[in-house]
Amino acid sequence: MAQEVRGVIAPGKDEPVRIETIVVPDPGPGEAVVRVQACGVCHTDLHYKQGGISDDFPFLLGHEAAGVVESVGAGVTDVAPGDFVILNWRAVCGKCRACLRGRPWYCFDTHNAEQKMTLAATGQELSPALGIGAFAEKTLVAAGQCTKVDPAVAPQVAGLLGCGVMAGIGAALNTGQVGRGDTVAVIGCGGVGDAAIAGSYLAGAAKVIAVDIDDRKLETARTMGATHTVNSRETDPVEAIRELTGGFGADVVIEAVGRPETYRQAFYARDLAGTVVLVGVPTPEMKLELPLLDVFGRGGALKSSWYGDCLPSRDFPMLIDLHLQGRLDLGKFVTETIRLDEVETAFARMHSGDVLRSVVVL
Ligand SMILES: [Zn+2]
Ligand SMILES: [Zn+2]
Fold first, then answer.
1. What percent of the residues of the chain are helix, what percent strand, and what percent coil, each to the nearest 5?
2. Which residues form the Enoyl reductase (ER) domain (predicted)?
3. How far apart are the CA of 92 and the centre of ligand 1, in A?
4. Is the bond preceding 11 in cis, omega lying within 30 degrees of 0?
5. Ligand with the closest atom to the CA of 161
6. 308 pLDDT higher than 80
7. Span 6-32, pLDDT tens digits
8. Among all ligands shown, which has an atom nearest to the Cα of 311?
9. Closest CA to 350 of 338, 362, 15
10. DSSP letter string, 22-43
């Protein structure tokens, strides 16, 4: 039977979010209902609320979540009721060209639940953020969006791997292919940049240079594994990174801001034939201008990293295992735990710069 639970709704462009009763249908074929235990507050949720992603209001926000599978629909064999899972927004199809070529992290046909959750009061259909909608006691997803991990991990820590932290770690490990002894610079030390630093540290980088305009963020970056810090409000980051790398530039520069000026810094702060990874998300009006001769002459690779080029079934369980073994401290990304009715205040705090992640615990 369909259930009624509480969820955080963005009712319209720039309107404050509020808690509403939502209707979660029983899982149909290929679907699962998950009892959400924790869900992080991400910038993307704020963008949905501001109307920056689409106009399909009302949105059911929340997408960095972990919880327990409550029920599954017909034909679901990979997860079962009682499984502890992280929700992902890359449920790969297994059939598209990318999947068939063995590159499922580029899947063009990732899927979500087919049935819609609705507002109990009006029957209006909800658009779940990134096809997840996990600021709710329960949510309906495609079973492929549930990735089983070791239940020994705390849910508020596990959920963060579902989006921002995976994007950052994956930018270093998967897209940047950071290896032992590499020099790495990370521009922008918010949650994603810090995760890129943690990923570079995990990969055995010899130097990890953190760049930001906020000294408090640089201090946090050190706890994530940065060996050097550069305040780019005071110092030219390109010069500083070159100086710290014997005059060469870094092997891999990860741009976690998503702006033309920081991209240009990343481009010139890498060694010849080095790699730039863009993981910061630009806005539609931004344009990049670079001398084409420099693009040619400096060689190397200019890459973008979307969701850290992750494959949830491969990366989530591995990273949770490394966390449980004490080799990757994902707990550092949780600044505070909050209640479901505190999401609006968490959005406000996100901009003050002293919160890495607020996590709703249910
Ligand atoms: Zn596919
Ligand atoms: Zn996110």
1. 30, 25, 40
2. 12-362
3. 5
4. no
5. 2
6. yes
7. 999 999 999 999 999 999 999 999 999
8. 1
9. 338
10. EEEPPP-TTEEEEEEEEEE--H
The pTM of the full predicted model, rounded to 2 decimals, is: 0.95
Question: Which of 155, 144, 168, 125 lies closest to 77 in space, CA to CA?
Answer: 144
Question: What domains are defined for the chain?
Answer: 3-162+329-361 (3.90.180.10), 168-306 (3.40.50.720)
- Over range 44-71, report the average pLDDT: 96
Gap between the Cα atoms of 252 and 247, Å rounded = 15
- Name the phi and psi angles at 223, rounded to 5: -70, -20
Tokens 């992603």, residue?
A: 53
Q: What is the mean pLDDT of the chain?
A: 96
pLDDT at 319: 98
Nearest Cα to 230, choosing from 244, 243, 211?
Answer: 211
The tokens 């491969």 sit on which residue? 314
Determine the distance separating the centroid of ligand 2 and the alpha carbon of 50, expressed in angstroms. 15
Per-residue pLDDT at 147 exceeds 90: yes
User: How is residue 43 written in tokens?
Assistant: 């910038």
CB–CB of 196/177 below 8 Å? no
Q: Which residues surround ligand 2, an ion (CB under 5 A)?
A: 42, 44, 163-164
Contact 266, 248 (CB under 8 A): no
Six token digits for residue 296? 């040619």
For residues 217 and 244, what is the distance between their CA atoms, to the nearest angstrom? 20
Q: Select from 184, 224, 177, 221 the least CA-distant residue to 205.
A: 184
- Name residue 184's beta-bridge partners: 208, 252
The closest alpha carbon to 177, from 211, 142, 144, 204, belongs to 204
pLDDT at 350: 85
